[in-house]
Amino acid sequence: MKKQQITTCQPDKAVRHGGDIYRNPVRYDFSINLNPLGMPEGVKRRLKETVEDWGRYPDPQCEALTRALADYHQIAADRILCSNGAADLIYGLVQTIKPRQALLLSPGFAEYEQALARSGCEIRYSRLYPENGFLPDVQQLCEQITPDTDLIFFCNPNNPTGHAVPREQILQIAKRCEETATRLILDECFCDLLDHPEAYSVVPEAEHFPGLFILRAFTKTYAMAGLRLGYGICADRGLLRRLSAGRQPWSISVPAQEAGCAALRESVYLNEARELLKAGRVYLTRELRRMGFLVYDSDINFILFFYGQEPRPLHLYEACLKRGILLRDCSNFTGLACGYYRICVSGQKENQILVHTLEQILEETGK
Q1: Alpha-carbon torsion 223, 328, 4, 145, what sign?
Q2: Model's pTM, two decimal places?
Q3: Contact 119, 127 (CB under 8 A)
Q4: Which residues fall within 8 angstroms of residue 311, CB to CB, at 6 or more apart?
Q5: What Cα–Cα distance (Å) separates residue 242 from each residue in 81, 88, 89?
Q6: Cα–Cα distance between 258 and 253 in angstroms, integer?
């Protein structure tokens, strides 16, 4: 296995995310990683039932939602902090902790490095290599975590690679972080869409690791991106109080809080989503490989693949966009180059349309 290396730099490039349908007229958006079932019907009903309440100020403490989350995870309510999406906590944590040096896996979710760069933090990267399937070497990563490492962001499953690290290995990282007094910010925003979330989530163990902060969100799991709702789980109540004190009041709207409470009751919906995603992931992986793309194994609702034919790479993003399909061009991820793309797993019809479109593009271009 190729030895991982660490590089140091300060990112200065603008971040582009998926879902940019406002500047791109598209019929099918494969750039986002939302649950293909869409927002649960129970959530929609609750929003309609409570629309008259939207005119009042929201509960700044989110007490009803916090209690519902505590019941859902079977943990104490005072270990939970609700937020205006996971990004709200990412930036809030960096501003509150004020790390001097942080460690990131590369490639990884871009908002981590953006939040750190804005604070002037030195960022060190632990590279994940395509020849290793972008799989992290947990033992080497633990060796890279030193007493000088104030903070590490770790996304599980990782975005954009789609690989999930089993909970036993996550706990190994958490133990190393406790030894070095390093804050471990563990992003589990996609975890509930895994086939078996309990094999990967460390929420039940969070109380044993004061330096661990778990990020969660309703965005992907329940297709509620526009409502902006996330939460954090941490045994360090002092950190939770500092985070809460440092943000603006009424940051989580009434509809977001109501939608969150309703979503947590949607167990059947989640089971249906996992079955749909598993079938779609198998289908898309098989078809992309059949067409000659280099596809990386994924555990979740999106797939990373590479296509860089010589002497001139085919720019799939533009080719698909002309046909009303939006992909995620991953060339702006630190650690990825031109030719890497990410697609979300959608419904059966949409997946078939994507495959047919890619076949047409390859046939027309002779690639």
Answers
A1: negative
A2: 0.93
A3: no
A4: none
A5: 11, 14, 12
A6: 9
What distance in Å separates the CA atoms of residue 367 and residue 358, rounded to the nearest whole number? 11
Q: How many H-runs (helices) and E-runs (strands) does the chain carry? A: 11, 14
Task: List the domains of the chain with CATH numbers.
Answer: 28-38+268-365 (3.90.1150.10), 55-266 (3.40.640.10)
Q: Angle CA(263)–CA(269)–CA(342) in degrees, nearest 5?
A: 95
- Of all residues in the chain, what percent are helix, strand and coil, respectively (each to 5)? 40, 15, 40
Which positions ≥6 away from 257 have C-beta within 8 Å? Answer: 58, 59, 62, 64, 65, 82, 229
Q: Bridge partners of 105?
A: 126
11 pLDDT band (50/70/90 cuts)? very low
Contact, 60 vs 249, CB < 8 A?
yes
- List, for residues 313-359, the tens digit of each pLDDT value: 568 999 999 999 999 999 999 999 999 999 999 999 999 999 999 99
